[in-house]
Amino acid sequence: VTLTVTDTYGAQHTSKTSIQIGSKPIAQILEPPEGATFAVGDIFTLVGSGYEAISDSPLSDTSLSWEVRQHHHTHYHPFLDEGTVGNNIQLSPAPNPEDFDAATNSYLEIVLTVT
């Protein structure tokens, strides 16, 4: 892209730069690690990071948005509401299953979005 600026006296300055469109930032969940297990009543903390894809520059904690879903059988319930912003978010206690059958197929899904 080329930008040319002209003042009221006719003086001009031109500058060129490249713009890349469509590169999404990169999200990384640091805690809890993938595959971590928990027991009812456990306390755990959500820790993540975000980086600009092109420049590899770190993003602030306010760019991190979390959601935690409590899955069982064929559906899920929100455990942490979508759009919870920040980092080092402590969740406690880990939830109980709805019933005995749900104890065999319950898990938490952690979703991190970086903007």
Tell me the major beta sheet.
Answer: 3 strands, antiparallel
Strand content: over 45%
Beginning-to-end CA distance, first to last residue: 24 Å
State the strand order across the main sheet.
3-4-7
By DSSP, the count of extended strands is: 8
- Helix count, DSSP H or I runs of 4 or more residues: 0
**What is the helix content?**
under 10%
Low-confidence stretches at least 5 residues in length (pLDDT < 50)? Answer: none
Q: Overall 3D geometry?
A: rod-shaped
Element-level helix/strand string: EEEEEEEE
Mean pLDDT: 88
Describe it.
The structure is a single chain. The chain is mainly beta and 115 residues long. 0% of the residues lie in helices and 49% in strands. The chain has no helices and 8 strands. The strands form 3 sheets. Strands 3-4-7 form a 3-stranded antiparallel beta sheet, with no helix packed on it. The two termini are 24 Å apart. 8% of the residues are buried. The mean pLDDT is 88.
